[in-house]
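Re: weekly structure request thread

Next one in the queue (452 aa):
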Amino acid sequence: MVITIAGGGSTFTAGIVKSIALRREELEVDEIRLFDINKERQDKVAVVVDWVLHKELNTDIKLVVTTDVQQAYTDTSFVFAQMRVGGYAMREQDEKIPLRHGCVGQETCGCGGMAYGMRTIFPMIKLIDDVEKYAKKDYWILNYSNPAAIVSEACRKLRPKARIINICDMPIAIIDVVAAAMGIQNKKEIVYDYFGLNHFGWFTSIQYHGEDLMPKLRAYIKENKILLPESYLKGMGALTSSSSQNRHTKGSWYYVWKGEYEIMENFPEYLPNTYLNYYLQAKEFVEHSDPNHTRANEVEETREKNLFDGIDHYLKTGEVDANTFYAGSHGDWIADLSAALKNDTKARFLIITENRGAIPNMPYDAMVELPAYIGKNGPEVIARDNIPLFQQGLMMQQLNSEKLLVEGCVEGSYEKVLQAFTLNKTVPSMSVAKAILDDMIEANKGYWPELH
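Done, posted below.
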């Protein structure tokens, strides 16, 4: 049983590997392979992974570290895909170029997300083709490479038969925060309903042991004017502290969690995905953004620095600070998802999938985010009734922006990509869309296909 992590040089890799290793009996995993095109970075991360597997957890799981496609994927059963095309240097451009033009600068939303999407589409298609060529025939790709909405639409359009499930950890991070705010210890016992697109959705119900938590949650958010647990509210300094272990509560994230209160003051029925702030409060987010110091810089100064400083310290002294070796808890969720596929458990997960009538008043081919039961044959999506007009209208605008972007990227059409930028809710006008796009074309030379 082989699991390959594509993007092995990620700061999240050690945490994901630990989650796999802790489920080694469920997954019956014999070998973990790290694959990345950045050898130097991956080799450093591999030091941590080796420590996790063979010293911290004392497993006999074999570790292979490679930059060779064939070695990475031959006879693998699962591929966890977490690529970041262009690295943090290009993420910084994604965030800072739109801000220069007075628009939201964010890595997965708005123009930044579209730029990142256009860099990622063809590398993801190549990954699918490589896995199809070398892996076991019943392989599964679990893709959480951002921007997942655009990537999943491209996969649907270009490789519709691929055995790929597109996922996102942000709803899980929101449930983590909800559990902490409500004083719930076992977050796995929370059951929720949700609909939307990736980074563009709403929780319609959240239940714990049969109790509807939404009234309590609304009251909590209204009282505290933010969706963060009390432990964070008592010491707001932790939000910007490099030692804070929750990557979704750093610096600029404060405004995102505060935005939950502001949105629900106007639209209290559903709990919004935090990313909806960038669309519903675009003006406000631009106003409190620093165009010279964005989230990419925050990550480089905290998570990135902590990990690689920790690795250097370990190599010099043999001493380990485990707090620097892990980032994010989404590895648990990904490992659980792979266990559900392997063992046919029919456990419930939130996934990105082709609609096919599951939301009746959304297009059949829309890539939507919905709960599904996961078994050996893949997801069984849980259908729902029509969604309200407000949410449907927002989703259609975003969906069509993403579809136009994918079409424009595949066809090399400047006009369609410009239409995608113009249609996006974070952009105020056609002329602003064009100015941003032209700057993005210059910044993404060598990454984007040529647009004509």
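Confidence is low (pLDDT under 50) at residues 236-250. The radius of gyration is 21 Å.
Next request, please.
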